[in-house]
User: What shape does this take?
Amino acid sequence: MRRIHLAVLALGLALTAVGLYLVFTSDHQDNAAFVAAGNLVAAWAFIGSGVIAWIRRPENRFGVLMTAVGLTWFLGALSESNNSLVFTIGSVFGGLFLAVFVHALLAFPRGYLETRIVHFAVITSYAVLTIGPLLASFFQETSDDCDGCPSNAFLITESDTAVTVITGLMLAAAIPALAAALWVLIRRWRAAAPPLRRLLAPVYATASASIVLLVVAGAISAVSERAADVVWWILLFVFASVPLSFLAGILRTRLARASVGQLLIDLGTAREPKELRAALRRALGDPTLHLGYWLPEEKRYVDVVGQPFDVEAEAAQDGRVATPVEHGGQLVAMLLHDISLRDQPELVRAVTAAASLALERERTVQALRQSEGRYRALLDALPDLMFRLSADGRYLDLKGDREDLVVPPERLIGSTVDEVLPPDVARVLLEGVGEALSTGKVVTGEYQLEVGGVSRQWEVRTVEDDGDAVLIVRDFTERKRAQVELEHLHDELQARHAELERERDFIRTVVDSAPSVFCLVTPEGELVRFNKTLEAISGQQDGPLTRGRTFWDVFIAPEDRDEVRWEFEELSRHGFKGEYENAWISADGGRRIVAWSLTPLSDEVGSPRYLIAGMDVTERKRQEGELRRSRARIVEAGDVERRRLERNLHDGAQQRLVSLSLALRLSQAQLQRNPDEAERLLKAASEELSQALAELRELARGIHPAVLTDRGLGPALEALVSRTQLHVALELPEERLPAPVEAAAYYVVSEALANVTKYAEASSVAVSVERLNGRAVVEVNDDGKGGADPASGSGLRGLADRVEALDGRLHVASEPGRGTIVRAEIPCG
Assistant: This one.
C-alpha cells in the first residue's frame, strides 16, 4: 500500500507539472499565474486529503475517491493547450472531477454507495458530465470569445439546434440527479445521531456551499461574465475547502482521543455505575451510549442498575453497534454506541482500553451483588433451621420457623445445647461441632427429637465458619418414611421388571419362532427390526446393514415397490389399518407371495411405529390355483363323459333297440300270414336284444362296475386284471375300504393299466393296494420304457383331481428307460 500511495503522489506531481506547463505556455490564458495557483490549491487539497484518508483508513474507499477528484481535476488543465486535440479533450472531459466529487460526497463517510437512488444520482452525474459535453462537441465550434483558442477537433458539423437539444436533455437528467443527491444528504443529516452529525457537519457545509455557488455561477454567467468569474473563483476555493473540512474531522477525532486522559481521571473518581457510563458517553461524544456488564458464571449481561440486558435485542432495536470491552483477554462488558463511531475505530479502541480496568472492577462488583442477592434469596427460601454455635456449643444466632424449635428463640440464644436438648441429641451435635471445627469438613448426622409433642427425624449438617459452627438442620421425617416406602416400591418394581423381562423374552421368542412375518418400521417406512421368519424367507439379516433402509427396498420385489410405497404412504398418512398381498424377494432370489397388514403402534419409548405382520401364502396360492384348475378339469371331464355316454348309447344300444322295435313290428305283421318268417324275425330280434344287453352291461361297467358296488375292490380289480392282456401281479387288502376310496383306487388302477397297455411297451405290471397309517396306498409299477408326463394328458390329470377331491395325493415317477410308478395315497379314516 505504501508503494501505491507513493505512486499516486508521483502521478499527481507529474500531472501538476503537465498542467503548469500547459497554463504558462497557453496562447489563450491571460491570468496564467492565478489559474495555476487555483489549480494547485484545489487539486492538491483533494489529493493530499485523499491520500491521508487512504492511509488512515485503507478499508474505506472515501480516501481513494477524494484522491481521484484531485487527479481528474488536471483534465481541465488540458484545455489550456494550444494543440487542437488536447484542447478539445480538456474542454470535453474537464468537468469529470465534478462527477467524481458527487460520487465521493454520496459515499461519505462509509466509502460505498448504499441505495438505488444514490446509484442513480452518481451514474447520472457521470453521464451528464462526460456524454453530454462529448455529444455537444460534435456540433459546436470553439467560442469566438476565446481569443487564441484552438479549433474543436471533434467537430462534425455546426448545429445550434443539436447543441440546444443535447443541452436540454442533459439538464433534464442533471436536475433530478442533483435533487436526488440533495435529498439523500438531507435525509442522512436528519437521521444522523449527534456523533455522526459532528463528523458530517464540516463536509456537508462546504459541499453544500460549493453546490450553491455552482448554481449561482451558472445563473450569473447568463447576465455578467465578469461577475460569474468572481463567483467561479470563490467556488474554486470553497470547493477546495471540502477535503480540508474532512481533515478537520480527522483532527477532531485525534483531539477526541486526547480526551482519553480526562476519561481516566473521570473513571478514577466514579463511584457509581451511572457515573462510569456518563464518563464513557463524554469520551465518545455519544449521549445515548448503553453499557452492559458480562457475568460469566450466569452467561448473561446486566445493565448499570443490575437488570438483565439483552445486547442483541437492544442493538437490533436501536440500530447500534456493539463493541466488546476486554481485560486480560477476558470479556468484561459490551458498549452499545452510535453507528457513526464505527468510522472512528481508534477513538473507540482507546476508550475501551482505558475503561477496561474500571469496567472489570465494576463488573466484579456487579457479579458480587448478583451473587449476594441470589444467596440471600436462596437462604430465605430454604425451609431448614440454621444455627450458629460457638465451639462450646452455645447458640449465637438462628434462622427458621419457631414452631420447629424445642424452646422459644429468646430462650435459645445464649443457652448451650446441653441445657435445651436431650443428652443423646446434644452429644450428636457437639461431636459434629468438634469435628467440623478441627477438620474444616462438612459433618453430617441424624437424631430423633420430639417437637410439639410429635417425635420427628432430623438431619444435621455442620460446617466451620470463622471459628464458629454453622448447623443446617432439616426435618426429614417424611423423607424417611418415603424412603422406606421407596425401598418396598423398589423391590416391587424390580420384581415387576424381572417379570416384564420374562414376558419380553417370551414374546420375542414367540415372534422369532412364529411362522408369520413381523417387521417394525418408522412412519417413513425405515426398518427398525424384524423376526427370524422374515430373515429365513428373505435371506436378509436384521442388523446395521438393513436397519434404516425402507422395507420395500429390502424385501419387496422391484415390480411391486412403487405400489407398496404408495400404499404405505397412504396408510401412514390417514392412520388406518390395511391388508395387501405382494411379491417379496426370497432368499434364492425368487418370489414369495406374502399377505401382510399394517398396524400403527408406539414403541417402548413412545415413538410412532408401524407393525407389518404377514404370512407366506405362496403355497396356499398355488393350491388355490390348482384347486380352481382341478375343478375346471372335473367339470370338463364330466361333460366329456356325458358326451361319450350319449354317443355310445346313440351308436350302440339305441340303434339296436330301434332295430329290435322294427323287427318286432315286422314279426307282428307276418305272424298271421307267414309264421315261418315271423319266427325268423323273432329269432333275429332275440339275438339283437342279447347284443344290446351286452353293450349296456359293458357301458355300465365303464361308468361304475357293478361288481365294485356288490363285492368290493378286490373282485373288481381281479375282473379288471382278467381282461388285461399283460401279466399283472395283484396284491389286495383283506378288509373292505370306504366306498369312495374303493372307487378312486379302482379308477387309478384302471387308468394306469390302460396307459401301460397303450404306451408303456411293458412286459409285466405289479398292482398293490394296502391300508397303511390310516391311508389307502395304491401303487401300479410297470417295467416299460417310462417317460410319462402327468401334465401332457387328461387321464392322469383326471385321476389327480379324483384323488385330491378326497384330500389325497397322486405321485407319478417315470424316468426314461426305467418304467413308471403311479402311486396314490388316499385318507380312509
Residues 720 and 750 are 7 Å apart (CA to CA). The radius of gyration is 60 Å. The chain has 26 helices and 19 strands.
